[in-house]
Amino acid sequence: MPVRILSRIFSEKKWIKIINMPIIIVATGIMPPARAVIYTMWLTVGIFFNFVVCRRFRGWWASYTYVLSAGLDTGMGFMAKLIYLLLQIKNITYSNFHADCDSVPGITALR
Questions:
Q1: pLDDT digits (tens, 9 = 90+) for 45-90
Q2: Domain residues of the chain, as ranges?
Q3: Residue ranges of the alpha helices (H) in the chain?
Q4: pTM, two decimal places
Q5: Plot region of 106 (φ>0 → left; ψ -120 to 50 → alpha; else → beta)
Q6: Assuming Cys at both sites, which of 7, 23, 46, 49 could form a disulfide with 16, CB separation 3.0 to 4.6 Å?
């Protein structure tokens, strides 16, 4: 309904009609649980790469869009495993992880 209403209100905007709400709802449902910063980065990279780069460098975008996607996914997986292993070597777990902020008076670690 929101897409239909928006497409009637802004009839001169042709891109509103190509929004597919079932795909958006299903895609957000299968996203892994994560902090909000990850979603904003996905949105930022997606908008930049699929609008700016696609319009200015169409050939390059057509050749490397899947390579960039695979590289970002692989890099995230690799870094998640690397950070996990490095934290385990130092015996740092979630239960004893805390942040001390000595530069700001009145801020203490949560334990």
A1: 888 888 888 899 999 888 888 888 888 889 988 998 998 888 777 7
A2: 1-30, 34-96
A3: 2-9, 21-29, 36-47, 54-56, 58-89
A4: 0.46
A5: left
A6: 7
